[in-house]
Design brief:
Nuclear Transport Factor 2, Chain: A, 4 strands
């Protein structure tokens, strides 16, 4: 039950984290590149930069969110083997379906597949609509 709650928490984290984007990713030319940057920053525990990848107003205030993120993605957690399954762009909205291997301390490794929604904001792709598991 605890593992399910942790997994659900991580999916919520990913959805929140993939909601908006920032100046740090203005060079990312595709929605898939934004998703990959999101994972890289998360793994490197560069949470402030990670926060900046999201669209303005999509996440709680920075201080609150960073505190939540420390709990949801503890030291030793890792997202690896990212595979972009599909990228669909429709004007200023995009969806990226991707899979990854997620490892959390004290839990079994999981392979997950999720879809992340992004928006184009001032010419750059930002995580803007959330991340949800693929059924």
């Amino acid at each position: 039950m605890k593992a399910v709650a942790s997994f659900a928490g991580m999916l919520l984290l990913l959805s929140s984290l993939l909601l908006v984007s920032s100046a740090c990713n203005q060079g990312a030319g595709t929605p898939s590149a934004v998703v990959r940057e999101h994972v890289r920053l998360l793994n490197e525990r560069r949470f402030e930069e990670f926060y900046e990848l999201h669209a303005q107003g999509a996440l709680p205030p920075k201080e609150v969110y960073l505190e939540q993120l420390e709990k949801l993605y503890p030291v030793g957690a890792e997202t690896t083997d990212v595979v972009i399954v599909r990228e669909e762009i429709d004007g200023d909205r995009a969806t990226v379906t991707w899979s990854s291997r997620q490892t959390y301390p004290g839990q079994e490794e999981k392979i997950v597949e999720v879809t992340t929604t992004l928006v184009r904001e001032n010419g750059s792709w930002k995580i803007g609509g959330g991340t949800s598991p693929v059924s």
